[in-house]
Write a structure and sequence with these properties.
Elements (H helix, E strand, L loop, with lengths): L1 E5 L6 E6 L10 E3 L11 E3 L4 E5 L3 E6 L2 E6 L3 E5 L8 E5 L5 E6 L6 E6 L6 E2 L7 E6 L5 E6 L10 E6 L6 E2 L7 E4 L5 E5 L19 E5 L4 E4 L7 E7 L2 E6 L8 E6 L5 E3 L8 E6 L3 E6 L2 E6 L4 E5 L1 E4 L9 E3 L4 E6 L5 E6 L2 E6 L4 E4 L8 E6 L6 E5 L6 E5 L8 E2 L12 E2 L5 E5 L4 E6 L4 E7 L5 H5 L3 E3 L5 E7 L5 E7 L4 E4 L11
Parallel strand pairs: 8-29
Antiparallel strand pairs: 1-2, 2-34, 3-30, 4-29, 5-6, 6-7, 7-8, 9-10, 10-11, 11-12, 13-14, 14-15, 15-16, 17-18, 18-19, 19-20, 21-22, 22-23, 23-24, 25-26, 26-27, 27-28, 31-32, 32-33, 33-34, 35-36, 36-37, 37-38, 39-40, 40-41, 41-42, 43-44, 44-45, 45-46
Length: about 500
């Protein structure tokens, strides 16, 4: 294989020595340069607080996959955990002295506890399945968690409790359970049997949306209290009311709602219009949640919503320049016309790699941005690719033999575009975008022509879309889907701007 030697602190060139090319394609490394801009202070105003909870005096949350704790009014936060894995769903014990959370210290997500003053985490579960902390029992003696360990399917969880001092887990009499909250006396629970909070879609309406039930542990019966087709999630029981998140409101966003058990009336408490509220949690006198990347506290007595401003001291290791291997992140390649070099996309950088002996060169050297889908022109003088250096993926052209020659040639705006195909005369580039529009960019005229459009292509089909030019660069041919779900072959006359379907669609034809 190739061994790589770094020649200076921020190299643009890596020199290779060949040892066994046939056994391994290539190993190379890239150096991420520091982010553009001035050096920021270590104390930062953070955002994207996740999974918050509140006690009588403090708020705990997950930030950058670690657990932090701060005064309820806000201020400087203290980090309580720092393992390489992710910590999530921290929950205060009823007395506010201990935190239960899901942590990945030893290669699996299990239930841990830690004092709020810090200390060595205590591991409570050791099952191979994920154990997600849900809450504490009202007496503070046991931790409630969700797990699929006995469900028989990985699609749903069940509830278990375990003593805060360790021991065997006990299963609750619920066939399905994702999120829940005990009644103050512990005899009932507000629970969702299914959940959509981990899904990547929004505004769904249908039978897979969560509903909130009140389950009675004495009678083993449940009553459904939500009846809309909206999503009603993450219930929190407080006195004679159940608080929860729902997108049933006019905003069609997840907002905080209240259900009065006696009157069975619903009241909307917040009115976020642009973004959803996420993962609320109930304390003795407040509800905390994240919305718009910010941390909010809803005071139950005053019914007032307040933003909690948090600062924290961190070394921001995610922004620290590091040496990373690109060997396992190669996605797109393009071979030079003479066959002597290959340009590879790896970790958002473009590398020029020798076919046999020679040096590897980082052509883009833009660690803050991503370059994708390089395509070498037939004459070997130009490489076309997509880059988000301007904020959106635009078409860029570069002369690989000339330093600092990259230039942006389009301003399409938001969207994602796929593989580029050069015409033989080196003047045109054909491609498809995420909206399934097939286009041709003309370098000479700096104009883009809309050719055609697919009907139902997802990412896989768009990534695999390919087209071919005739030797005289006049005709473009490709296949796309039709109404009958078959593919037909099309021929586009670029000179006369005329599109012709050349196969009937009766047979499935592709890759002309």
């Amino acid at each position: 294989m190739y061994s790589v030697k770094r020649t200076n602190k921020f190299p643009s060139t890596l020199f290779l020595t060949k040892t066994s090319f046939m056994k391994k394609w290539i190993v190379f490394t890239m150096v991420m340069s520091s982010m553009v801009g001035s050096q920021l202070l270590a104390q930062i105003n953070a955002g994207l607080y996740r999974f918050p909870d509140v006690s009588a005096s403090q708020i705990v949350f997950t930030y950058a996959n670690d657990i932090w704790i701060v005064a309820k009014e806000g201020g400087l936060a203290t980090k309580l955990s720092s393992p390489p894995g992710v910590e999530s769903f921290p929950k205060f014990s009823p007395d506010g002295k201990t935190l239960a959370f899901t942590g990945n210290y030893d290669g699996n997500q299990d239930v841990y506890t830690i004092p709020v003053e810090g200390g060595i985490p205590t591991r409570l579960t050791a099952h191979g399945y994920t154990d997600r902390v849900v809450d504490w029992t009202p007496d503070g003696k046991r931790v409630l968690f969700a797990s699929g360990r006995e469900a028989g399917r990985e699609r749903y969880n069940q509830f278990f409790t375990i003593s805060s001092s360790g021991g065997p887990a006990e299963k609750l009499p619920l066939a399905y359970a994702e999120f829940g909250s005990y009644s103050p006396d512990g005899k009932q629970m507000a629970v969702t049997f299914i959940s959509q909070v981990f899904r990547n879609w929004k505004r769904y309406r249908g039978g897979w949306n969560a509903d909130i039930h009140i389950y009675n542990f004495t009678t083993n019966k449940s009553e459904k209290i939500t009846t809309t087709d909206a999503s009603d999630e993450l219930p929190m029981w407080y006195n004679n009311s159940i608080y929860f998140l729902s997108d049933r409101g006019a905003e069609l966003r997840m907002n905080l709602w209240k259900y009065d058990i006696a009157s069975k009336a619903f009241t909307q408490l917040t009115n976020f219009k642009n973004y959803d509220a996420h993962f609320p949690s109930m304390g003795p006198a407040d509800i905390v949640f994240e919305a718009e990347g910010k941390l909010y506290r809803y005071e139950l007595s005053s019914q007032q919503l307040k933003e909690v401003k948090v600062t924290m001291v961190t070394d921001k290791t995610a922004l620290k320049p590091t040496v990373q291997s690109a060997e396992k992140f190669i996605q797109h390649t393009t071979i030079s016309p003479d066959g002597n070099r290959v340009i590879m996309e790896g970790r958002g950088e473009l590398f020029s790699v020798p076919a046999e002996n020679g040096f590897v060169k980082d052509l883009s050297r833009t660690s803050a941005w991503a370059e994708r889908a390089p395509a070498w022109s037939p004459d070997g003088n130009t490489v076309a690719y997509w880059s988000d250096q301007s904020g959106e993926y635009e078409l860029w052209l570069m002369e690989p033999a000339k330093e600092n020659s990259a230039r942006k040639v389009t301003s399409y705006g938001p969207g994602f575009r796929y593989n580029l195909t050069w015409s033989p005369d080196n003047k045109k580039l054909a491609f498809i975008d995420k909206a399934m529009s097939i286009k041709v960019y003309d370098i000479a005229t700096d104009k883009t022509t809309d050719i055609d459009k697919g009907l139902r292509l997802s990412h896989g089909g768009l990534e695999g879309f390919n087209c071919n030019w005739s030797p005289d660069s006049r005709w473009l041919t490709y296949s796309r889907d039709k109404e009958n779900y078959h593919n037909s072959v099309f021929l586009y006359d670029y000179q006369n701007k005329k599109l012709t379907q050349v196969t009937s669609g009766f047979y499935d034809c592709s890759n002309p």
